[in-house]
Here is the input.
Amino acid sequence: MKTLVTIIDPAIASYCVEFRANQLEYAVRHGYWHHVGESLYWPDLAASFSKAAYIAGALENKENEIVIWADADVAFTNMTVD
Here is the structure.
């Protein structure tokens, strides 16, 4: 199993529509489960702190052989490369 992880909380969701679609397209094409955190673990802290918790959660799943983090504003430009 392979997982692509990101956080897109409500505060930035409207700005990330295209990025989310792009990441989902990449994930589907390459057999990744696309996990989008839609809330912060610690709302009073920057999203970068919650990033660690989402990655740790994906790594705790022993079925995951690969875990990739993508910031909410990351777009894949070459869909042919895994």
Remarks:
- The chain has two helices and three strands.
- The chain has a mean pLDDT of 96.
